[in-house]
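The data are quoted verbatim here:
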Amino acid sequence: MQGAPCGESVDDGLAGAYDKAGAAGMVPERFRRQAAVRGKGGAMNREDQGLPDFVAAEPAPSLAVRAYERLRRAIETGQLPPRTRLREEALAEWLAMSRTPIREAVRRLEAEGFFSRDSRALVVSSLDQQGVAELYAMREVLEGTAAAFAARQASDVEIATLRELCEIELGLFDRPEDLIRHNERFHSALYGAAHNRYLLKTLGALRDARALLGASTLTNADRAITAHTEHEAIVSAIEAREPARADEAARAHIRAAQRERLRRLDDR
């Protein structure tokens, strides 16, 4: 586990990018404030969360929850690649925690399918080529639907936010980890703009499965630039209120990501 990096937070760098973009009027204040607080490793207080006095601020997470979130993030970012064999004591040392919260986090991750057991050894779960194809087939349908719904139902403010998020990407190409985190925010904003709770729930379940894919395809510099162009096409279609064009742009985006993912599988 010594090879797993645990240095500067991704949000630490993203907060700086948001500050620069915010100075140019390119990102809403709430995104900058939240990124800055999280980048410092702090829990968001009532003011940071934009809560009125009569609403309780979000409590600090327990050690078990923190262990779960860090381990899951390590799987999603590829720090813990698929099929990696692990020991609880090594995880405890890496996260600087006792084995009790680690054990709780591991049980939760096992129940969600992120970890499995191989002759009692803990192993990071993986998807084979068929599993990847099935996942991307569903993602293409759902992302296309989200974009089409957004073209019909997104508010002007939501569309402006999508455009702002798309523009911020231009300053993140040389910072892959920040770009990956920002990409998640773009897609989350797209899903929210669709205004369909059942679609959101289904996309959330699919996001859990996507974590088993390992490192994002955006770590490939050429793919990152192409993905930005695809995001631009999605947002332009939504701005034009053209559902069919938005659907096709989102589907094309996911098909391109699938091609890069399958190429990586072939190279393994």
Observations:
- The radius of gyration is 19 Å.
- The CA atoms of residues 136 and 258 lie 6 Å apart.
